[in-house]
Amino acid sequence: MTMPDISSIDAVQSMLADQGYVCDRALGTVTFLSLSLGRPLFLEGEAGVGKTEIAKALAAGLGKRLIRLQCYEGLDASSAVYEWNFAAQMVAIRTAEATGAADRKALQAELFSDDYLIERPLLDAMRPDENGAPVLLIDELDRTDEPFEAFLLEALSDFQVTIPELGTIKAPEPPVVILTSNRTREVHDALKRRCLYHWVDYPNFDREMEILTARAPEAAESLSREVVAFVQRLRTEDLFKKPGVAETIDWAKCLLALDVLTLSPEVIADTLGAVLKYQDDIQKLQGSEAKRLLDEAKASLEPA
Questions:
Q1: Judging by DSSP bridges, how do beta strands 41-44 and 176-181 pair with one another?
Q2: How far apart are CA 209 and CA 215, in angstroms?
Q3: Model pTM?
């Protein structure tokens, strides 16, 4: 397999662009450094700005497996690393008892072998892979608690995990690690210091147009410009959840499915659920508010 060129910031940006991921120079730089130095990359920002997508684009561009650890409240080290196939172990025990061939030591060694081990994302990422070290996405780390962060800090420092029954398993080659946070709480400084850090912000108009063109190329430029201008105006409003780039792309695709050629207050009212996800926010855009924002958006597109 031909190895992608990641020898420069421009090359990394180009590789990501080939996968439909448009990033600015700052994000391209920190991604290049993460790949070059073998350091985990910690991305913070609002939901929907493309933090998760960069891991997918990296894996595709590098020709590596993507392993995703989706974080949630109550996630512990065991759930992230491994668990034993308890049902299969019980079947093996009962079979051994029924046949009278139960050698306690031999049975114990068999029960706690790889045959009964269920690998979770962190352990999976430490295993050898024919395509080289995988891309490990640790998504929405801010949903977990401090004990899990402490465990993760140790695991990412040495790129190894310990299973009491099997011993320590060390990655032959460190995975490419991307951590994301929506900043619902602060992640501990010790973990951030282990990583390269970047805040992924909402893109400006030109950057968002590039992204939309890459992800929804079938949309007419005039409609795309109206969609992006309207979403940019929406983000200036006092909303519970401002729309991310993901919502911009979703909305444009919904409009295409409806054969919409240009935005109108009626079209916005019918499709607002594609771009806003909370009823209180949608309620604010009823009636004249949507028309006001649309008028402002269209005015911003007119030549000065």
A1: parallel
A2: 10
A3: 0.88
